[in-house]
Amino acid sequence: MNDTTPAAYLHAHQFAALAPGPRLIVTGAVHGNETCGTQAIRRTLDDIQNGRLEIERGLLTLLPVTNPYAYAKKARQGDRNLNRNLRPGNSAGDYEDRVADVLCPWLAAHDVLLDLHSFHTGGQPFAMLGPRNNAGQLEPFSHEGEEERLVAHLGARCVVEGWMQAYQRGVERRRRLRPDAPVELLDAAYGVGTAEYMRSRGGYGVTLECGQHDDPQAPEVAYHAIRQTLALLGMARIPLQPPAAQFTVYHLEDVVDMDHSGDTLLRPWASFDPVAKGEPIGRRHDGTLVCAERDGYVVFPNPHALPGNEWFYFAVRSSRTLDV
């Protein structure tokens, strides 16, 4: 077996307290080159196994490496992006589809998800927040308050909402401009990842972007978030640190794809860099400028995106506040 041979299994660690309580699952390396969560989860495992941490209520499942193939490759994905179009039932598909057949039932068996990620370029940690309570078609939800309180205690002062709405707009554009794109890129459920799937099964989940991939502080951010989550849920005797005094909440308005390998960003953008209406953000391979349609912010810029995949996101300030 060589280092990039896809693993034939997922390895989770589970701790079931004798007293009832919440069911929490913590995931790392959904993207294989995002290892801060893996490091933090393994540190938490060491704490438990060496008696420094005891799970006293509920069920804790720790999954250090959610995508073993991508992790072995030290790449974002194995065959495809696991955190898009996540659903079970396609075991004859690619590697990530087979992972989904195992992962999705695990998510559905829990109440709360903490999914630990990192990002390509510079910027401060931020949390991804789900929708307000609603009974709509796109992402019905009923745990707004619980999810906001979790986000507020994770340590990040920046919060991003509007993920599924941005992807809905992105998919509509693809259908209009690139009807010959791979079918999965045209699927209305393309934006469904771990947290979105968790919400669709009646739970709630937070994706925490802990910092740039190689930032030595990112594993510390992830480790702090795990402990804060355990404290907030009352699963372990850990002092709960208070939330930040204030947060900045951004609403994702759009996702812009890289169309060609020759597309380039015009500067080394970092998440939450401000842009003015009409300001160029990138240049297509044919010289066409991609400009901001209104005043806002660049989020998740990825100069190394694959053609047909997300190049950057555009956000505006949200009026939403957190229930802490």
CATH superfamily of the largest domain: Zn peptidases
- Name the strands of the widest sheet in spatial order: 1-3-2-4-7-5-6-8-14-13-10
Counting helices, strands and paired strands, the structural category is alpha/beta
Biggest β-sheet, characterized?
Answer: 11 strands, mixed
Would you tell me which CATH topology of the largest domain applies? Aminopeptidase
Count of alpha/pi helices: 7
Per DSSP E runs of 2 or more residues, the count of β-strands stands at: 14
**What is the rounded distance between the termini?**
49 Å
Overall morphology: globular
Label the CATH architecture of the largest domain: 3-Layer(aba) Sandwich
Q: Mind explaining what this structure looks like?
A:
With 324 residues, the chain is an alpha/beta fold. It folds into 2 domains: 13-249, Zn peptidases (Aminopeptidase); 250-317, OB fold (Dihydrolipoamide Acetyltransferase, E2P). The chain has 7 helices and 14 strands. An 11-stranded mixed beta sheet has the order 1-3-2-4-7-5-6-8-14-13-10, with helices on both faces. Strands 9-11-12 form a 3-stranded antiparallel beta sheet, with no helix packed on it. Strand 11 and strand 12 (289-291) form a beta hairpin. It is globular and about 60 Å long. The mean pLDDT is 94. This is Succinylglutamate desuccinylase. InterPro entries: AspA/AstE_fam, AstE_AspA_cat.
